[in-house]
Write a structure and sequence with these properties.
By secondary structure, the protein is an alpha/beta fold. The protein has seven helices and 15 strands.
């Protein structure tokens, strides 16, 4: 059994609240009596993309489990790389381009996670650049067909019936769907950005969205007259556990962290 923890949208902003909520989630994972295959953090690590925010995030986002982080729309690619991936060895062509996409892969025992950068510098909506799609195509082609691949990014590539988030989701999704059609071992898509636990489908696969750590999304039918119509600040942080069974079936559990 392969268990992967999925965390998103910590939004480190220099305030104690975001740091405390992030610390609580990572402490919960650290104290589990089980070795996780990976911990994924799918974007919006820093609230303003500032170097001092990444310095705090680097201290908080530590784990005894393998941990991978990708950027979101609040992140700055250059500051993200410098603050969170200082030891990363980059191809010469990428090293000369501080704002190149930040794509990473984890190849574990019986699974692969391809973590794609869906951020668009200076914009809130998402897009997988041609460079990222080519990289993903290569990683999938290099993976034996019996090995399941989970593809993760920040922006969901379909509407979630949440107008505020849907307007800044991942666009150009037909290109990703066409790529998925060529690789049947692409098992599921994982995303963040929406600050709500959600499950739907995309390109015939599960699309599983992690809840937010810093806040939760108000769904449009919950509190239309609320002072802040988009955000719950009083709900506890959450995360997802994605479980790959020996039969290749994927199961997702959602948890809140209250301590």
């Amino acid at each position: 059994m392969i268990v992967i923890a999925h965390v998103s949208d910590v939004h480190i902003d220099g305030e104690q609240r975001s740091a405390d909520r992030t610390r609580a989630v990572l402490r919960y994972l650290e104290e589990l009596p089980y070795d996780l295959a990976a911990v994924l953090v799918t974007g919006d690590v820093a609230d303003h993309g500032a170097p001092d925010e990444y310095a705090v995030a680097r201290e908080l986002l530590t784990s005894r489990h393998p941990l991978l982080v990708c950027p979101g729309n609040h992140d700055d690619r250059a500051a993200f790389r410098k603050g969170l991936l200082p030891g990363q060895t980059l191809p010469e062509a990428t090293a000369a381009r501080p704002y190149a996409p930040v794509n990473q892969v984890l190849r574990g025992a019986g699974f692969v996670i391809a973590l794609c950068d869906s951020s668009v510098p200076g914009e809130d909506q998402g897009l997988l650049e041609d460079e990222t799609l080519a990289w993903l195509d290569g990683e999938l082609a290099a993976t034996p067909h019996e090995v399941p691949v989970l593809v993760a990014f920040h922006h969901p590539p379909v509407p979630l019936h949440t107008p505020y988030v849907d307007g800044i989701r991942q666009f150009g999704e037909e290109r990703l769907a066409a790529l998925a059609d060529r690789h049947p071992h692409l098992t599921a898509f994982l995303a963040g950005h929406a600050h709500t636990a959600a499950a739907t489908t995309f390109a015939g696969r599960p699309l599983l969205v992690a809840p937010g750590v810093v806040s939760a999304l108000r769904l449009p039918w919950e509190s239309p007259g609320a002072e802040n119509p988009h955000v719950h600040l009083d709900l506890p942080p959450g995360l997802a556990f994605h479980v790959l069974g020996e039969d290749g079936r994927l199961t997702t559990h959602y948890r809140t962290v209250t301590g």
